[in-house]
Each structure stands twice: as C-alpha cells, then as structure tokens.
Specification:
The protein is mostly helical. The protein is built from 14 helices and no strands. It has a domain at 190-343. The chain is 88% helix and 0% strand.
C-alpha cells in the first residue's frame, strides 16, 4: 500500500520562508543580545523610577516631567555612587596596605624572625618557600598584565552604563506621552484598547510594587546587619552593609550570598567568634524575613507560587547574571497576568477570526454587487 502526499509549491515556499526568518531572527537576537539586555534593563529601571517621577512632577512648575526626572536621577546616582565608593575605598586601602606589608613579611619569614620563619628553618623548607614566592610573583605579574588588557573592557562598560542611563532618562521623559499617542493611533476598537490599557496597568503595578518592595526588604536587611556589626565592632560595617543591600535585591538567594561574603570578611578582618555570631544572626534574620517581609512583597505584587518564583530566579540568573534574578519575578508576574487574561477571554479570541472573515465576505459581496 502506497501513500501519496501532494504538497503545493506555495506551501513549500511558506515553510521555507518561515524557517529562514526564524533562523535570521535567532541569529539577530544572539548578535544583539547585549543591546537587548541593555534596553530591557533601562526599561526596568524606568518603570521602577516612574512612580517617583510622576509624584514629583505634580509639584513642578506647569507639572513638567523634565525637572522631576532630573531630580530623581540625581538622587539615584548619588545613592549609587555612595554605595560604590563605600565598598571600593576600604577594599583598595586594605589591598594597598597588604601589598606594602608583603615584602617585610617575607623577609621576616626568610630570616627566621617570626614563629613561621623558625618553623621553616627547623624543617629546612627555605627552598620550597622561595619557589612558592617566585611562582606567586609570576602569577601576580600575569594578573597585572591581564588587568591592563581589561582597561579597554572597563571603558566599554562605562560607555554601556552611560548609554543605559540615557535610555532610562529618555523613557522617563517621553515614555508616557508616546504610549498614549501610540494607543490612540493603533486601536480602533475602544473596548479592546481599554482592556489592553488595563493589562498594562496591572503589569506596571506588578513591576513597580515588586521593585519598591524588594528595595524595602533589602534596606531593612542591610540596616539590621549594620546594627549587629556595630555591636560586634566589625571593621568597615558600612561597606559590608552595602553588600547586604545590593545582594538583597536578588530574591531568594541574594541574602544567602551576602551572608556568606560578610561572614568571610568578618572572619578575615576580625575573629572567628564574631563571624560565628554574625552567621547565626543571618540565619535567624532570614527565617524571620521569609516568614514576614517576603510573603508580603511577593503576595501583594506577583501572587506566584514559591516553586515558580524559585525557578524564575534560577533561569534569570543563568540568562543575565545577578540582574536577571532581579528581573525574573516581575517578568513571571507579568506573564501570569497575560496568561490569565487570555484564558478569561478565550471566547473572544475564538470568535475574532470568524468576525473578521464575515466582515471580509460582506465587503466582497458589496464589491461584486
């Protein structure tokens, strides 16, 4: 028994065209991946800052958004600069002091003027230590040369940051007006336009509510960590609290990563007792936060199951790094809104093609007659 399948040429052309367009689309996304991530990041920050801009614009002359955008961006950049330099300055100071003390430490060890040096003389380990020092020097030289080669990459990152900042400012300035004008020109069905505007409003509420809530959670965690570090007299408490704040913006896993980093710094900079106390504090605080603050933020904004949140964060971090973990939950919340809306209006979607076909047939009848 033979089965003959007849495929029209136009169908083959359609399939081939779709395959080519899909391949080109995937290739284009891969090539433009960095630019797409930059635009999405700027869009995300614009959504997060827009409530503050809208609030301040009410009190500006003629209710203009320009001065409000400038004021919000100045405050945001000032806070970001403060956090950055509070971390970089002590780290650079400690690294410089350590680098200056290394030659003296090596001389003490080699001359036997320290307990470690006497131990080396006792077991005749001078040749081994010398080889380790020489290999370490070669390793440091290679690191220095690679750091020089990365200066160009640092310059590119500065250009990328400035570009993202400019895109964010332009979105804050022109975004609302552009959305309104586009909505009026695109939609002919008033009911459909109102429905889509309601969807956008819901997604906007999810993003802004989640971001503001997560910032509040990270701020509370950093202040609590700052208080316990002051009590324990841990060196550089403000930079370490800044690390807790920055990592606290990443949901679910951010606080754990911050706790590990801060406890290790405390172990190196102070002593093991303070590190153990601080580790116990972070464990206790995370339990309290998971039972109180996190459910409030996630429950009132995204209303997603814990499994969906965790999987979203893992995928976001894998795709875009730490910033992807911050984006993941709002994106999942927006996807949920779209899916629920589609399921609620399935009858509308099923009837729409029939309505279009009937209208086309009526128009053809009029033309023929």
């Amino acid at each position: 028994m033979t089965l003959n399948v007849n495929v029209e040429t136009k169908n083959l052309i359609k399939i081939f065209t779709i395959a080519v367009l899909f391949t080109l689309g995937v290739f284009g996304v891969i090539r433009m991946y960095d630019a797409i991530v930059l635009i999405l990041t700027a869009f995300f920050f614009a959504l997060a800052l827009n409530p503050a801009v809208s609030f301040l614009s009410k009190y500006m002359p003629w209710k203009k958004r320009g001065p409000a955008v400038a004021l919000v961006m100045i405050i945001a950049l000032a806070l970001l600069s403060f956090l950055t330099f509070s971390i970089i300055t002590p780290v650079a100071r400690e690294a410089s002091a350590f680098a200056k003390s290394v030659p003296a430490r090596i001389d003490e060890i080699q001359n036997g003027n320290s307990p470690l040096g006497r131990l080396i003389d006792k077991y005749d380990l001078e040749d081994d230590i010398t080889s380790v020092v020489e290999s370490s020097q070669e390793h440091l030289q290679s690191i220095a040369s690679s750091a020089i080669n990365r200066v160009g990459q640092f310059g590119n990152s500065i250009v990328t940051s400035i570009s993202g900042l400019v895109i964010t400012i332009l979105m804050l300035l022109n975004g609302p007006a552009l959305m309104k004008s586009a909505s009026k020109k695109i939609y002919r069905d008033k009911e459909l336009r109102e429905r889509h505007e309601m969807l956008i409003s819901k997604m906007y509420g999810v993003v802004t509510g989640y971001v503001n809530g997560q910032v509040l959670v990270a701020l509370v965690a950093s202040l609590a960590a700052l208080g316990i570090m002051f009590l324990l007299k841990v060196p550089y408490p403000l930079p370490l609290a800044s690390i807790v704040f920055v990592f606290g913006l990443i949901p679910l896993i951010g606080n754990t990563l911050a706790a590990i980093i801060v406890v290790l710094f405390t172990l190196v900079l102070k002593d093991s007792t303070s590190a153990l106390v601080l580790g116990g504090f972070f464990i206790l605080y995370q339990q309290i936060e998971n039972a109180t603050l996190q459910p409030m933020v996630q429950g009132k904004t995204t209303q997603l199951p814990t499994l969906v949140i965790f999987v979203s964060v893992i995928l976001g971090v894998a795709a875009m790094g730490p910033i992807g973990g911050l984006f993941a939950i709002p994106i999942a919340g927006c996807a949920k809104i779209l899916i629920v809306d589609y399921l609620d209006h399935r009858n509308y979607h099923d009837k729409t093609p029939k309505n279009i076909a009937s209208k086309l047939s009526d128009q053809l009848k009029k033309v023929v007659s």
